[in-house]
Amino acid sequence: MDFEFYQQERDFVKEVDQFIRDNYDEEVMDVTRENMAQICDTPKRRAFMKKVAEKGWLGLTWPKEYGGSDIDGVYEYLLNEKLSSVGAPQIGKGVGIIGKTLIRHGTEKLKQEFLPQILDAEIEFAVGYSEPNAGSDAAAMRLKAERKDHGWVLNGQKMFTTSAHFADWYWVGARTDPQAAKHSGITLFLVKMDDPGLSIHAMPTMGKERTNMVFFDDVFVHDDYRVGELNRGFQYISEALDLERFTMFTFSPIKARVNLLVDYVKTTKVNDRPLKDDPVIRQRISQLVTDCEVARLLGLKFVSAAMAGGKPPTNEASCYKLFATELSQRVANATMDIASPGSQLALGTQTAPLGGRAESTYTYTVIDTIGGGSSEVQKNIIARRKLGLPKNF
């Protein structure tokens, strides 16, 4: 594979850079929100995404028959990396998880209803896989869906639904056949978030962001809003998770945090001795910089494999997600260690090293190795699908 970008791709990056400069707003672009900066959870952030849509940058890889541009996935990669580098909202759930799944498996009714709204940035989605006893193990979900008339009645609970308090629609998995094997009997549905049977309860996180518990009490979903074939939801979720593992954990913020740490080490002294002269710190910094290059190339490997195969490559997605998110935590840990006791001061504290980014990065990156499937899940996927190891070993 070629790790260099073509001139047309470099021109696209320049265009995105200019767009960011022309639309800069510190309320919209906030790098201190770390990975949570990607969501459109305020009117201003939604308005920003509308401007992205007006540029024709949503659905870049979608087929033209559905309003997309039908161009290589590298453009989505470059766009997301640029947006994440300034803490701006990114293309994600709607374009990737929901849109691409509907294109592959949705009915014409669902395509006609949702795809244009996604392309115009008129709609936001919440994704409901995790449950109290089914976190990273989506196949263990137990939210019950029972047949009734021309639809389904859903009862149960979801956990860690980050966007539930502002989303318009809920992309949710439910068990439609409790007698089926664990990885079977699950079906995907689209549920209106203002359904009276939904109850949303805030779950504050240590990263000062909000996720949610969502309770279903006799929520009726018409069969028109069932996605794909009955009892094949887990297969669709697996496809979508490969996208999530890549698009939701961009590389640029990790690299930016390493650069911030490098600048701190270059300019800081402890006991009149420059930190940059400490051999232990120099070794640790060099390892992080090297790991950053590995993460960048793993990301490009995913993009290349996706372009060649036509659908998200599982092995490459898990390799990137595992390495990049654990690197993100190593960067956070190193920043806390090197900045010493002052690293515990909160973001914005005037005397805090690195402006308090050490503390905020440390608390935010806790979720990185959990969201989209924990590191343990990624290791199992790599072991079975890449290395050919048996399930029980």
Report the biggest beta sheet as strand number plus sense, adding barrel if it closes. 4 strands, mixed
Q: Using DSSP, what is the number of strands?
A: 10
Strand content: 5-15%
For this structure, the CATH topology of the largest domain is: Butyryl-CoA Dehydrogenase, subunit A, domain 3
Task: Give unreliable regions as ranges.
Answer: none
Identify the CATH homologous superfamily of the largest domain: Butyryl-CoA Dehydrogenase, subunit A, domain 3
Discrete helix count: 11
Instruction: Return the structural class.
Output: alpha+beta
Q: Your description of this structure?
A:
The protein has 393 residues and is of the alpha+beta class. It has three domains: 7-91, no CATH class; 126-231, Butyryl-CoA Dehydrogenase, subunit A, domain 2, CATH 2.40.110.10; 249-386, Butyryl-CoA Dehydrogenase, subunit A, domain 3 (Up-down Bundle), CATH 1.20.140. It is built from eleven helices and ten strands. It has a four-stranded mixed β-sheet with strand order 1-4-5-8. Strands 2-3-7-6 form a four-stranded antiparallel β-sheet, with no helix packed on it. Strands 9-10 form a two-stranded antiparallel ribbon. The protein is globular, with a radius of gyration of 22 Å. It starts with 6 loop residues before the first helix and ends in a 7-residue tail after the last helix.
